[in-house]
Specification:
Largest sheet: 4 strands, mixed
Number of helices: 1
Mean pLDDT: 95
Shape: elongated
């Protein structure tokens, strides 16, 4: 698909690191499957992956983590 941010690049399947920050907590989730723009690097997550990332991020924050770093395991 064409990137909606730069409007010149096209996306390719890849993996990204997603950073979530809330209430003084930072959660880094590595190896997240995404469509990544070959031109600007902007990425797009599917609904399923977004749901999983948010779920894992909320779990880490709820456990009291100030900084959590992990790789996303997608079945």
């Amino acid at each position: 698909m064409q990137c909606t941010l730069c409007q010149t690049g096209t996306t390719e399947k890849g993996k990204v690191t997603v950073t979530l920050e809330r209430d003084g907590s930072i959660v880094l989730i590595k190896d997240v499957p995404a469509e990544v723009c070959a031109n600007c690097g902007h990425y797009y997550l599917s609904e399923e992956i977004t749901r999983l990332v948010m779920e894992k991020g909320n779990e880490a924050i709820a456990s009291g983590a100030e900084l959590e770093v992990f790789k996303l395991k997608v079945a």
